[in-house]
Write a structure and sequence with these properties.
It is a multi-pass membrane protein. Pfam families: EIIC-GAT. Keywords: Cell membrane, Membrane, Phosphotransferase system, Sugar transport, Transmembrane, Transmembrane helix, Transport. It is built from 18 helices and 6 strands. By secondary structure, it is mostly helical. It has one domain. The protein has a 3-stranded parallel beta sheet. A 3-stranded parallel beta sheet has the order 2-4-3. Helix 6 crosses helix 8 and helix 8 packs parallel to helix 18.
Length: about 450
């Protein structure tokens, strides 16, 4: 267990290259090529984290200044996903998430119940997060562990479900995002898109980055949009001219650099993805596998970044006016792209639809994060996490994700039965996607004489 914890503590920028190197060798990739591919992915993650760090360092003080400027007072501090991950993996229960995740992935693959081969094992912390909250709520270690296992199954169901849209919209063949914070928003976006399609005028509005740039010229360019959004946020924060301009250039830099870091990640993943496809084609000719990766690959898309930067000040406004909210958004403002990145494919890159849906998502999420704050605070204390002078902490990732409310709420009301219901639905979804649907497709093709 100590060795596993040491491996987890290496972080994704070190852990993923090692895993991808080993995975590449298993798939028959030459050692030199596998090593370079893994190293490139690790460097890409470092670059991506540097860009996210730039956004955090810029937006964090600006959001705090905005709150102070308008005299807002909220008692619960958003400590951000790094703290949430540390809290999740900081206990014996949380540290079991990775072996449970790997074991279930292998079993599901063997029985043909998933197409997702997840190499992003560090992000099992999202499952550890809900398991830890259920443990805090019930005091039952085994129910917490059961919650982790069921959450893993849910994540694989979502990974299989979203893979086609990821390939279609982002252009990432044979890659999916079984990501506990990002994937759940996909299920919300589907019915919202159905509603949007039936609203007169609104349903005709084209607002993808390409259309916006054509209509607005230079002002529609994503980098320039980042600068303009930075100017607005700086003004609302009460900054002086120098500080406003510095913030504007920083947000513009994020818009320009983020896609390039994602391109570097994809450069490293390509050889592994190609080797996996060839491996499966030879040994499992009737099956397609998806490589499960961090949704960080998607956050560099112009539609995602533009929407997220608009949602940042909206989220701060919602935090103040929303009855029942106690959370001051701070640590996770820069990671809002992760919460909405799988809404964007459903809306085909439509920024207006993404902002409207994202606003609703964040409004509900703030209430969930406020509701979960006592449990998150207690989990932090149990993990010996230093919360400083704060008496109440939460996080938008994963505190604001609806699956957190689902798991913890059902565990509170129905205990083991509630978690089992979630697992049965997710397993039913996997059976449909991987057993029933393929047979129906074959039957329909035969009916058409294909």
């Amino acid at each position: 267990m100590e060795v596993l914890q040491w491996f987890v503590d290496l972080g994704p920028s070190v852990m993923l290259p090692i895993l991808l190197f080993i995975f590449g060798l298993i798939l028959g990739t030459k050692p030199g090529k596998a090593f370079k591919a893994g190293l490139t992915v690790g460097i890409g993650f470092i670059g991506l984290n540097l860009v996210i760090g730039l956004l955090t360092d810029s937006l964090g003080p600006a959001s705090k200044a905005m709150v102070d400027n308008f005299g807002f007072s909220l008692k619960t501090i958003d400590v951000g996903w790094p703290a949430a991950a540390a809290i999740s993996y900081g206990t014996a229960l949380g540290s079991l998430a990775i072996p449970v995740g790997i074991g279930l992935n292998v079993l599901l693959l063997i029985f043909g119940l998933t197409r997702t081969l997840n190499v992003d094992i560090w992000d099992y912390w999202h499952c550890a997060f809900t398991g830890s909250l259920v443990y805090v709520l019930t005091g039952n270690f085994y129910l917490g562990l059961y919650t982790i296992a069921i959450h893993v199954i849910v994540v694989f169901f979502l990974g299989d479900l979203i893979a086609k849209d990821i390939s279609r919209f982002y252009g990432f063949p044979n890659i999916t995002f079984p990501h506990g914070a990002s994937a759940p928003s996909y299920l919300l976006a589907l019915p919202m898109n159905w509603v949007f399609d039936r609203i007169p005028v609104f349903n005709k509005l084209k607002a993808d980055p390409e259309t916006i740039q054509k209509r607005l010229g230079i002002f529609g360019d994503t980098t320039v949009m980042g600068v303009l959004i930075g100017l607005v946020i700086g003004y609302l924060a009460g900054y002086n001219v120098t500080e406003i301009l510095q913030l504007a250039v920083s947000t513009g830099a994020v818009m320009l650099l983020m896609p390039r870091m994602v391109a570097l990640l994809m450069e490293g993943l390509s050889p592994i993805s190609e080797a996996a496809s060839e491996f499966v084609r030879k040994r499992l000719p009737n099956r397609d596998l998806y490589i499960g990766m961090d949704s960080a690959l998607s956050v560099g898309h112009p539609a995602v970044l533009s929407s997220a930067l608009i949602i940042v000040p909206i989220t701060l406004f919602l935090a103040v006016v929303l009855p029942g909210n106690t959370v001051l958004p701070f640590g996770d403002l820069a990671t809002i792209p992760f919460l909405i990145c799988l809404m964007t494919p459903v809306f085909n890159g439509n920024i207006v639809r993404t902002v409207v849906a994202g606003t609703f998502y964040m409004a509900v999420g703030l209430l969930i994060a406020s509701w979960a704050a006592p449990l998150i605070t207690e989990a932090a204390l149990n993990a010996n996490f230093d919360i400083g002078d704060s008496t109440s902490v939460s996080a938008l990732v994963d505190g604001a994700v609806w699956t957190t409310y689902l798991f913890v709420g059902l565990a509170k009301v129905l205990s083991w039965t509630g978690i089992t219901i979630i697992g049965a639905v997710a397993m039913g979804g996997l059976i449909y996607l991987n057993k029933i649907k393929p047979k129906r497709t074959v039957t329909n093709n035969n009916d058409l004489g294909m």
